[in-house]
Design brief:
It is a single chain. This protein is an alpha+beta fold. The protein contains four helices and seven strands; from the N terminus they run H-E-E-H-E-E-H-E-E-E-H. The protein has helices at 20-25, 56-70, 100-108, 163-181; strands spanning 34-38, 44-48, 73-78, 82-86, 112-115, 134-142, 145-154. The chain has a five-stranded antiparallel sheet, with helices on both faces.
């Protein structure tokens, strides 16, 4: 485990402050859930919790079904990573961090449908020079929290995204959000 050199005391209510530097490095925002574990050596481990990560294989199956029926690349994200990706070009997104722009779309809870040349186009990963001809992004909302997104993209300039893709993304996002609530 990496030592940080930061020491914090527990207050009278049993609380401890996670230092800002660590929160920034791990992209932990106010209100983010953390899992708490202990190990045999008596260490306490805090891990950022991803509700969508709990749906791992289910999310993969859903992404594969959408990709198969639409012929597009489908990604299901949490607020940090692309956790389930299906379709041609899945290596470009799988397990990659979401871009700041995509996280802002999720936070704002708005659907985006754009072509790659439009100013509304949202980069999906920060460091890659990825480019898709068309995209639809729909945030996943669970118990009032924006926790991820369903992304449908196409590299084929002859396959614009229409109402069908928007409705499929919205249906998938709504369904996944309700699954997490149960």
């Amino acid at each position: 485990m990496k030592a940080t050199g930061i020491v914090r005391r527990i207050d009278d209510l049993g609380r401890v402050v996670v230092p800002k530097e660590i929160r920034k490095t791990l992209h932990i925002r106010e209100g983010d859930p953390l899992e708490i574990f202990t190990d045999r050596e008596g260490e306490i481990i805090l891990k950022k919790y991803s509700p969508i990560g709990e749906l791992g294989s289910f999310a993969r199956q859903y992404a594969e079904a959408l990709a198969h029926s639409t012929g597009h690349v489908v990604s299901i994200t949490d607020r940090d990573n692309h956790i389930a990706v299906a379709g041609n070009g899945k290596r470009e997104l799988m397990n990659k961090p979401v871009s700041k722009a995509l996280d802002e779309v999720i936070e704002k809870r708005k659907m985006v449908a754009a072509a790659g040349y439009e100013k509304e186009y949202v980069p999906l990963v920060e460091s890659e020079a990825e480019h898709y001809a068309y995209q639809v992004i729909c945030p996943i909302i669970s118990e009032g929290d924006a926790i991820g997104s369903v992304v449908i993209v196409s590299k084929d300039e002859r396959s614009p995204m229409g109402d069908v893709e928007k409705k499929l993304a919205a249906a998938a996002a709504g369904f996944l959000g309700r699954q997490i609530e149960q």
